[in-house]
Design brief:
2 copies of one chain form a homodimer. Chain A has 178 residues and is mainly alpha-helical. Chain A has 2 domains: 3-85, Arc Repressor Mutant, subunit A; 96-176. Chain A has helices at 2-13, 19-27, 38-50, 74-85, 96-102, 109-140, 145-176; strands spanning 17-18, 54-59, 67-72.
Chain lengths: 178, 178
DNA sequence: TCTGCCATGTAAGTTGTTACATGATTAT
DNA sequence: ATAATCATGTAACAACTTACATGGCAGA
């Protein structure tokens, strides 16, 4: 259900995007908040089209497969606006590392510590990339209209990664002393 | 796949639990890190039993439906230990509020602000409950063996909710000034 | 008597993952 | 040559949700 709205949200921000473009966005920075494989995206685009929420422009390219770019229809924009206004509960999430932690005493302490260190490194990596984007966004222009909202999602990404690193540090500190 | 391990992790901590007990745990505090409906749990327990990872003790109760309690088998414990030691990537997650934020400029500003305030209230609520459990855990006993690891998952829950509240505050501050 | 909790499941439908399938263009 | 990127899909399978189904016991 929500994948549909995620696609509509992307198309609202930047129209005339192909399934391939969307798949890249879902795999990139935005992918920290919503993921979808290209297979899912192509299916969903076909479905959205049937419902009249997006329209497609087929661009033939000589020799190659034709490229299809999608844009919001007025109906699609309306449905999206309606969804944004509708209250929802905070999204549940699943974290396998926490399940592992819950039964961490069963495993080798060194292995658990190593796994937490690995995760910490990964989050540090993501954090530095997000901070870069944060700098870019603040330097280039004054935040207007739509940019402001995308800036706020970026802020959340940064906070989340900072939180992860802080937790990993706490775990490492506690597990290292016997 | 991971639901299986989540169930094994619960049974490792406290054996002889019924599907109903597990469903309650998944719906309760632990549910912030992993969710499963009772339907899913009953199915998965049957599957785990076929594989010989859990064993069941059927307790007849006069008049009522019999109660089935499940415990880990040695094979189940081994599989769980092996899974915990196997490195994984940080779990992806999906956050519908972030998708809404991304296209927030399309909606009524008042509605967006109200939604963020609602979410903030929810997270404050969860946070206070988690902090209570934190106090209980620290006061009652010195943390030993398995408790330590469950304490660390609780710490993560608290940090996450704090992060949520801080982000909501930032959003509210930024959206209130024109 | 009615609500809520205890207790267990089946079945249909939706969503998401993995595997399979193809083929041109561009950079190393 | 070989790999990576562009570009689009189908099909089988696994995971998850929603609806349906049943029935006792305890307390208001």
């Amino acid at each position: 259900m929500s994948l549909a709205y995620a696609i509509l949200a992307f198309l609202a921000q930047e129209p005339a995007r192909s399934g391939y473009d969307l798949a890249k966005q879902f795999a990139g920075s935005v992918g920290r908040f919503w993921q979808a494989s290209h297979q899912q995206i192509y299916m969903e685009l076909a479905h959205l089209r049937e419902q009249g929420l997006v329209e497609v422009q087929v661009q033939p390219r000589d020799g190659q497969l034709e490229k299809k770019t999608y844009s919001l229809t007025p109906l699609g924009a309306e449905k999206l606006r309606e969804w944004i206004g509708r209250p929802i509960e905070p999204s549940p999430f699943k974290d396998a590392l926490m399940v592992k932690m819950y039964a961490g005493h069963l495993a080798d302490p060194g292995e658990v510590l190593a796994e937490v260190r690995r995760h910490r490194a990964r989050h540090i990596e993501w954090l530095s990339r997000l901070r870069e984007r944060n700098r870019d966004m603040l330097c280039n222009t004054k935040l207007e209209q739509g940019q402001m909202f995308r800036y706020l999602t970026l802020r959340r990404g940064i906070r989340l990664e900072e939180e992860w690193v802080a937790w990993c540090d706490e775990v490492i500190a506690l597990l290292q002393q016997p």
